[in-house]
Backbone:
């Protein structure tokens, strides 16, 4: 059950007043290095600094008035928590964000700054789910999943839709793969709004669950989370996996040194503050140049929320 | 003897094929903090990463064919050396760049990567000037000054010209003050291409030679160069000082903590990789908000060439 073109168009119109249409950058240095025409869709300049704003906004706007009146809740220590907080505030909806008590003050302050009601809990998945369930039981709030919900996936698709509207001759879209919400949305956009445009995923070797999932035909998990690309440590879900199976051509894996080198290129040469997850996609293009040479490549820079005191340079 | 509107228009047309028309960014966070509408003219996305590309290109294009055939030379360990190297290569002109032997390999590699012929010398002004003079004597190359030459100043003016073309209702232009070439060019653009737009300079307290020069009426120098804004350690020259005296309304001084805080805002909130000199201009807006509140402020982000291993965060 692939979401339709009409669903995607409706989402784009629905969220347009609440998000930025982000710019597309190019770099002659990167083009020379890759032999490709690389279009950087710059979601680090999205509101709150990441594409997650799109999915969060679409998910909340897709709720009924009665649901919205009761608020929303999510458990996330990262970009999705911030995105839900900011999207909810923009829409006049109360947002509860469940965060592990290990979350840094930078992350707590960001969520609080966007008006999110923070609920701290122990740093385990079980504790987070319990805290979320308690808020649902107490308030009637709707729980939002960061990546495995169709309205989130469809909202995420709007980034690639914008890119394809501006650059209809794009041959390949490439995006990082974490929980699967961005790559599934990106592939949906290519499927509905481009001719002969394929979608490729990029994933750290250390957390290559999606690569293995495509091989085995079932959702695989990761034994470790030992990658600098902290946004990509999660695994796929039952809503996005079928879309990925059907519409993603391949997943390219990159190692940690390749991620850091690509991140350095994006910062030093392109002057773009992006998070390591974004660099994973460029690292994949650099690693497997024969796939991209001579092509127009739309690369989704997922976000730019990094802790400046913890850079790998 | 203020350069004319026609000279500026001719320069803009002359250099257009060789430079980027850089984008203008806005940030709702910065607007909320300042009460102003701040337009970030993003010269960090200029070719080679800084506005200096404009002045260097205009200076070389203003030479006669006979002069160009003999090449150009400059002594600079920073952005201007790289700008001359790249501009010269784009125009098929030989460029000699005199650099102190203390220059980091990063800077040498950048100049060499742009095709510049590096001549190392001792790390004193006397040694640099001697090495430059020797190259002039030997090759007939034309020596280019980074900031105190009219064609460089006029080339630099094109950044603010672009901004005023896109945003004609700009009330205030603000730019950092180092050798005086950028602020003089910016003030010229405001003078010729805007009505009631004033120009303000921003300078580190530690190297406030321009502030003192406007007070005393003669070119002052700095006793120390103890600022993170390494592009602003130089002093004004006889070509740009009269322009600055006539057309710059005031200079706002900021301390090192204020510069670093503004730089953090630009990186963390705006996702822009900018050098400390660029942050000096934002720091000035934040320091003296009553001057800017309710105004449309065009802020020239001078460049983005930083050593990622030496960030102040």
Residues:
């Amino acid at each position: 059950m692939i979401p339709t073109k009409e669903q995607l168009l409706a989402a784009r119109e629905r969220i347009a007043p609440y998000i930025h249409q982000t710019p597309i950058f190019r770099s002659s240095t990167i083009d020379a290095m890759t032999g490709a025409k690389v279009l950087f869709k710059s979601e680090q300049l999205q509101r709150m600094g990441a594409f997650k704003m799109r999915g969060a906004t679409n998910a909340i706007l897709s709720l009924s008035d009665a649901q919205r009146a009761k608020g929303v809740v999510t458990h996330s220590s990262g970009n999705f928590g911030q995105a839900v907080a900011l999207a909810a505030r923009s829409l006049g909806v109360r947002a509860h964000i469940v965060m592990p008590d290990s979350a840094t003050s930078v992350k707590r302050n960001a969520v609080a700054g966007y008006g999110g009601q923070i609920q701290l809990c122990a740093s385990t998945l079980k504790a987070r789910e319990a805290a979320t369930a308690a808020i649902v039981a107490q308030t009637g709030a709707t729980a939002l999943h960061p990546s495995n919900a169709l309205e989130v996936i469809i909202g995420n698709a709007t980034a690639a839709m914008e890119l394809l509207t501006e650059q209809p001759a794009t041959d390949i879209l490439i995006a990082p793969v974490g929980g699967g919400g961005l790559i599934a949305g990106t592939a949906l956009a290519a499927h509905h709004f481009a001719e002969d445009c394929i979608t490729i995923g990029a994933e750290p070797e250390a957390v290559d669950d999606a690569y293995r999932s495509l091989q085995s035909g079932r959702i695989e998990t990761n034994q470790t989370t030992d990658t600098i690309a902290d946004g990509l440590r999660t695994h796929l879900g039952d809503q996005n996996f079928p879309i990925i199976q059907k519409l993603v051509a391949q997943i390219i894996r990159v190692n940690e040194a390749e991620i850091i080198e690509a991140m350095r290129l994006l910062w030093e040469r392109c002057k773009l503050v992006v998070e390591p997850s974004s660099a994973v996609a460029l690292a994949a293009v650099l690693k497997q140049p024969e796939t991209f040479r001579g092509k127009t490549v739309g690369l989704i820079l997922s976000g730019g929320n990094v802790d400046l005191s913890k850079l790998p340079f």
